[in-house]
What does this fold into?
Amino acid sequence: MWCPTCKAVTSCKSVYVRHVNQYVATARRLYRTNHDDVQFYRRGRKCQTCGHGFMTAETREDFIDELVELRDTLAAIKHDTEQYIADSEKTSKSLGSLNESLGKLRALKIYQKQKSK
Ligand SMILES: [Zn+2]
It folds into this structure.
């Protein structure tokens, strides 16, 4: 099993959930009330290498596929949003420079003569 502390696949013993988190519900078969299709079986685990205790949830494999797809999509949206904000800041700065140049142009007599025609 993959240990989140060791960041590696290690031997992790199945333990009673209260041995990992004393505040967690003792029910082992669980579901999300607002997503009744998200059902899982909770297990407490203890890493035999580092001693870290953590919870796991046994669930349908297609749910994991859906989770990965959602994470990838969210990461792409985050990337695009950050790129849009960076581009908008560049555009804003560029518009400021253009406006400043237009101000200089408007100060020229030749610009004022052309405008009055
Ligand atoms: Zn570990």
